[in-house]
Amino acid sequence: MLKTLALKLLLAPTMVLALILISSFSFAQSSPTVIEVKDEEELKDLKALDHEAQRLLNESKICKTTAQDYKQECLCNKHEEYLEFYKKTNKILDNPSRSIWFRAILSYEDNGQTKRTSLARFKKIALDFDQSCFRNDDGTFRANHEWDKPELLIKDAEEIKELHRLYSARKKIGLTISKCIQSKLRTYEECQCGYKEKTLLLIKSYERLGKDHPEWMDHILVYSHDGYIIKTGLEQEIRMAKQEIPSCKE
Question: Whole-angstrom Cα distance, residue 191 to residue 178?
């Protein structure tokens, strides 16, 4: 499960954000199981991961006090450390017997002290990096400032209807492509390029909205739909739609 999460972290930040928020909400609303970790190998893996998590958090906190661009300097420039952290998090769940750890509080003894941690804590570190950084073609990462924009509340019913239509269409295309790739019945490129025309039409629709409402490009758009508050951005949606067909020829 976490291996899939690591892939999504690099390909679809919004989808990952939704999944993690839902998971965290469910985690908080129920009484989680407390698992005492005693096995020598499991204890070694958990301690190493928990110590690494604390190191990343401490260094990020210190870096933030002097950084001019916190995301770039404190997170994106240290992408190798964060990606390695993903791998270590994946490894700890390689053993099927550890699947119950995913929604549990993990307790362990360390130098005479009882410590508690959780995979939700590790996911939060992954989420902070994922929301803050984009991968460049050369393998480096650049800061994502899309969510730093001011919010703009959309109230007009027709505008909300069009926004949500496009928002839902982009999510549907992304989910369909992901299912196609996971089925392994078609190649990665075939799955992506099979939806090229629909994706290009979607991008054009978003670009048209940007021309009709220039101020929307400089804001995070907030609207209510079926009792839910949804936040999105034209720049973000266009970028994510283009990510669905990166290998397709023009």
Answer: 8
Count CB neighbours of 210 within 10 A: 16
Residue 7 tokens read as 């892939």
> Which residue from 65, 89, 64, 86 is spatially nearest to 75, judged by alpha carbons?
64
Q: What is the pLDDT of residues 55-106, one digit of tens each?
A: 999 999 999 999 999 999 999 999 999 999 988 887 777 777 887 887 899 9
Quickly tell me which residue has 């892939």 as its tokens. Answer: 7
Q: Identify which of 61, 55, 45 has the alpha carbon closest to the alpha carbon of residue 101.
A: 45
Phi-psi region of 30 (alpha: psi -120 to 50; beta: other; left: phi over 0): beta
pTM: 0.61
> DSSP 3-state assignment of 112?
coil
Buried b (16+ CB within 10 A) or exposed e, 79-110: beebbebbeebeebbeeeebeebeebbbebee
The full set of domain ranges for the chain reads 2-144, 148-243
Say if residues 131 and 123 touch (Cβ distance below 8 Å): no
Residues whose CB is less than 8 angstroms from the CB of residue 223 and which lie 6 or more positions away in sequence, other chains included: 153, 154, 155, 159, 160, 163, 164, 229, 230
Bridge pairing between strands 151-153 and 220-225: parallel
